[in-house]
Design a protein that fits this description.
- There is one protein chain.
- It is globular and about 65 Å long.
- Helix 5 packs across helix 6.
- The chain is of the alpha/beta class.
- The chain has one domain (30-259, 328-367): Alpha-Beta Barrel (TIM Barrel).
- Helices cover 35% and strands 23% of the residues.
- It has 11 helices and 17 strands.
- Keywords: Glycoprotein, Glycosidase, Hydrolase, Signal.
- Residues 1-26 form the signal peptide.
- Residues 29-368 form the GH18 domain.
- Belongs to the glycosyl hydrolase 18 family. Chitinase class V subfamily.
Length: 368
């Protein structure tokens, strides 16, 4: 009997440290997507079994108080988001995303410039995440655009990290995850991200490797989310990953983003149907943006021709003078495999509500 005690003790210690490590905030893989109320996609319809993490977007920054708030119309859904998605997958982790492309950039710049306002932002974000049951926070400031703003962004991240560590220590709860959605490259039009602060402070960054071409800013058709760019102009997911990692971001802190939507153009010449064809502007919607589910419907309803271009790892389809660039299953799978082969932490998509019966999410999850 007595001879088994040391073995039992060793097993107990091993189990303790296994549980300790398992409950830490370190991630092994991120398979994520964003949800937002404007998609009109019910949270209950999210197949959370296909994800490790889900982002609930967006909380707002109050420009007067510098506190993080949730619009009254969204409070009920945000406050039950975690509980709802965990019904299908109890292991899925949720993050409250703050900001977004439509958010006031000047409000974020002002908040980040001052210690007092930064503290107001940080403290309120932690309170809100805890009260709503989120496992983490995600900052989507699009984008710090000057050297000063980038420096302040780095300071904000460092203080945010210190605050969540201190909060976890004082409450005994697992530390909140911290992430940020950033430009696909660490070089934002000659303004550099504070890569060291990003690497030190965040669990990972979501690289927004999309919106490279669109009717609102491109007079020719082009791959909205190319993984590769044979012209080496820099507009590609691979170029963005190399930019960040060469600047010092560990690959395991990078999560590659791709869109569940595309852009539709009106061709100037119906006989010119490949990339970089002349256009007369947006088609189908006012800005040309169109969700993947709608794209699939367009293809079926119009008998559209579909093309996968393996040079850029992107898809397009056309019918008559309407041309749509997007990501289909093959390009999504190619990107997921690329992320895995490059040693990245994972992938994310914007946004889950634009998928077609979870087809892209399922393909992505199975490809990792």
């Amino acid at each position: 009997m007595s001879s088994t005690k040391p073995i039992s003790l060793i097993l107990s210690i091993t189990l303790f440290f296994s549980l300790l490590l398992g409950s830490s905030s370190a991630q092994t893989v991120v398979k994520a997507s964003y949800w937002f109320p404007g998609s009109e996609f019910p949270i209950t319809d999210i197949d959370s079994s296909l994800f490790t993490h889900l982002f609930c977007a967006f909380a707002d920054l109050n420009a007067q108080t510098n506190q993080v708030t949730v619009a009254s119309a969204s409070q009920a859904r945000f406050s039950t988001f975690t509980q709802t998605v965990q019904r299908r997958n109890s292991a899925v982790r949720t993050l409250l995303s703050i900001g977004g492309g439509a958010a006031d950039k000047t409000a974020f710049a002002s908040m980040a410039s001052n210690p007092t306002s930064r503290k107001s932002f940080i403290d309120s974000s932690i309170r809100l995440a805890r009260s709503y049951g989120f496992h983490g926070l995600d900052l989507d400031w699009e984008y710090p655009s000057t050297a000063t703003e980038m420096s302040n962004f780095g300071t904000l991240l460092r203080e945010w990290r210190s605050a969540v560590v201190a909060e976890a220590s004082s409450t005994g709860r697992p530390r909140l995850l911290l992430a940020a959605a950033v430009f696909y490259s660490n070089n934002y039009y000659s303004v550099l991200y504070p890569v060291q602060a990003v690497a030190d402070s965040l669990d990972w960054v979501n690289l927004m490797a999309y919106d490279f071409y669109g009717p609102g800013w491109s007079r020719v058709t082009g791959p909205p989310a190319a993984l590769y760019d044979p012209s080496n102009a820099g507009l590609s997911g691979d170029a963005g990953v190399r930019s960040w990692t060469q600047a010092g971001l560990p690959a395991k802190k990078a999560v590659l983003g791709f869109p569940y939507y595309g852009y539709a153009w009106r061709l100037a010449n119906a006989n010119s149907r490949s990339y970089y064809a002349a256009t007369t502007g947006a088609a189908i919607t006012p800005d040309g943006s169109i969700g993947y589910g709608q794209i699939r419907k367009f293809i079926v309803d119009n008998g559209a021709t579909t093309v996968y271009n393996n040079t850029v790892a992107g898809d397009y389809c056309y019918s008559g003078t309407t041309w749509i660039g997007y990501d289909d299953t093959q390009s999504i799978v190619t990107k997921v495999r690329y992320a895995k082969q490059r040693g990245l932490l994972g992938y994310f998509s914007w946004h889950v509500g634009a998928d077609d019966n979870s087809g892209l999410s399922r393909a992505a999850s199975q490809a990792w």
